[in-house]
């Protein structure tokens, strides 16, 4: 019998209904959509995202391809996301290479999706907190572009805490299936294979077409 592998998939965002559907909360949204669309016969994983006091996060634990996956939404607010991630990583003894963080990315246009690893926070306070708490940046990130086509005269904090426009929502709907595919592929095949498949020119061209 093969050894079970533990994975941690973290969606980043802020807790509370006032932050739902904001740009900064796309990590929560992508994670929940992935869980909702998993073809599991024994449970409904979206119903298992329950608040855990010890880890200060909403958690759902599922099995997929002989892997235990801890799906988590830190409830510490974005700037302190690392405390929940580090707590979960230590408790479940998850190797850093088996962690995937789903985040909003201001350096990518809306509609573009990339997977990366071992990079800096690039001004993202949630990532900064995670890197500090883990003592390493050697984990993977699913980066969802949220930047508008044209620069807007609005403070970054206000921009990320605003909701998507109806036109932008149509683009988000289009990237949901792609994001689901990337998360599942990462769990099955790891970072390198996932990056080779989804960061290649053909996939990036498909991403880019969503901007139009």
Structure write-up:
With 212 residues, this protein is α/β, with parallel strands linked by helices. It has one domain: 3-Layer(aba) Sandwich (Rossmann fold), CATH 3.40.50.1470. The protein is 37% helix and 24% strand. The chain contains 7 helices and 7 strands. It has a 7-stranded mixed β-sheet with strand order 2-3-4-1-5-7-6. A hairpin with a 2-residue loop joins strand 3 and strand 4. Helix 1 crosses helix 5, helix 2 packs parallel to helix 3 and helix 5 packs across helix 6. The longest helix has 24 residues. The chain is globular. It starts with a strand and ends with a helix.
Layout of secondary structure:
Layout: E1 5-11, H1 26-37, E2 50-52, E3 57-64, E4 67-74, H2 81-91, E5 99-109, E6 113-117, H3 125-134, E7 140-147, H4 156-160, H5 166-189, H6 191-198, H7 201-209
Parallel strand pairs: 1-4, 1-5, 5-7
Antiparallel strand pairs: 2-3, 3-4, 6-7
Helix pairs in contact: 1-5, 2-3, 5-6
């Amino acid at each position: 019998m093969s050894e079970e592998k533990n994975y941690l998939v973290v969606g980043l965002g802020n807790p509370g209904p006032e932050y739902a559907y904001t740009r900064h909360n796309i990590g929560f949204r992508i994670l929940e959509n992935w869980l909702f669309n998993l073809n599991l016969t024994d449970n409904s994983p979206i119903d298992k995202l329950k608040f855990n006091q010890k880890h200060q996060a909403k958690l759902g634990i599922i099995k997929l391809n002989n892997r235990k996956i801890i799906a988590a939404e830190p409830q510490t607010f974005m700037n302190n996301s690392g405390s929940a991630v580090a707590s979960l990583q230590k408790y479940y003894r998850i190797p850093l290479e088996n962690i995937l963080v789903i985040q909003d990315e201001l350096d990518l246009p809306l509609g573009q999706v990339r997977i990366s690893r071992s990079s800096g926070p690039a001004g993202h306070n949630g990532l900064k907190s995670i890197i500090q708490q883990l003592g390493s940046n050697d984990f993977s990130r699913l980066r969802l572009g949220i930047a508008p086509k044209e620069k807007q005269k609005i403070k970054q904090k206000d921009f990320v805490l605003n909701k998507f426009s109806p036109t932008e929502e149509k683009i988000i709907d289009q990237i949901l299936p792609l994001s689901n595919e990337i998360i599942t592929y990462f769990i099955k095949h790891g970072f390198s294979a996932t990056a080779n498949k989804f960061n290649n020119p053909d996939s990036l061209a498909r991403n880019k077409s969503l901007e139009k």
